[in-house]
Amino acid sequence: MAEVTLEGLRKNYGNVAAVKGLDLVIKDQEFVVLLGPSGCGKTTTLRCITGLESPTGGRILFDGKDVTQQKPAERNVAMVFQFFALYPHLKARKIITFPLRARKASKKHIREKVEWVAEMFKLHHLLDRYVGGMPPGDKQKIALARAVVRDPNVLLLDEPLSALDEQYREEMRWQLGHIQKQLKVTTVYVTHDQREAMSLADRIILMRDGRIEQQAPPDEIYRRPANVFAAYFIGSPGMNLFPVTLEDRDLLLGKESRRLPIPEEIISKLAVTERREFVMGIRPEFLSIAGKEAGEGESCFPATIFSTEQVGNYKIFNFRVDDEIYHGMVRRKGVLEGEGMVCFDMAQARFFNKESGEAIF
Fold this sequence. Notes:
Layout: E1 4-13, E2 16-26, E3 31-35, H1 42-50, E4 57-62, E5 65-66, H2 72-75, E6 77-80, H3 92-102, H4 107-121, H5 136-148, E7 154-158, H6 166-183, E8 186-191, H7 194-200, E9 203-208, E10 211-216, H8 218-223, H9 228-233, E11 240-247, E12 250-253, E13 258-261, H10 264-272, E14 277-282, E15 287-289, E16 300-311, E17 314-321, E18 324-330, E19 338-344, E20 350-353
Parallel strand pairs: 3-8, 3-9, 6-7, 7-8
Antiparallel strand pairs: 1-2, 1-4, 4-5, 9-10, 11-12, 11-14, 12-13, 14-20, 15-19, 16-17, 16-19, 17-18
Helix pairs in contact: 3-5, 4-5, 5-6
């Protein structure tokens, strides 16, 4: 296994900078997910690590050894792509053993490794079947088995589940996390799907425009986003972001200046900044509906709930401030549309600099 270090990694395509000076350390045996919107540089970063792309600048190190100019075969990495790249006319056993046969491994070693990987992925019943007729989930298992049978130093996964139907994705998501812990292999996983990132990662590297916006464990990046981009990108729905103005002991929300009473401790923290205008962020699950009976001084304001939707055990309710739509999420089936009081759990609120978007607290 290996620790992977990126030092000032840059990759340009002509005049387009895809990766802009990344500094990153991926610890030995860590499961890291590169997450971000399309075009943010995550796949280019992965391809540089594997050696399929040559960096424009910077260095790539495995356990302190510079591998920047090494070919993929010299790095002992394994990569699994979004599409399976399997030969449909071959049986699973032959596909899985290809990396070992290419290394001229002994027949005994090959048999032992096939037995090991078949047990790991529960593939015994598939080994002697042609992959052409297999369902997508089984094909992806074969692709993963072929990748890990060679004992790679680093396992690189580029959107490996995005081509699967939801029923297969659920199963494979669990299996991937379970198997990675068993293999104890350093893993770098690329996805735009935050659900995959939140469920699999030891650490999420959130990227935008070729740069790292935030890197943190899933719970931390969810609860304490470093900026408004992280706040809105992570979560479904994303964090509500309200433009607010501090006036006396209240916050005024939006152009309509809806008055929201807030706790004294938050007033004190905001006052220290010597600013009056902020962006306040709060996750939908920390909003609730109180009807019209909210107590005086509570962090609530009147709003019209214009639509609701049931998502599992939760009810999402939608309301407007100015022309912006915001979302709350409660464990209630009886939420009705119409007039009410939207209440905030202010202990869970985050505040951001209005100009830079960076978190204040």
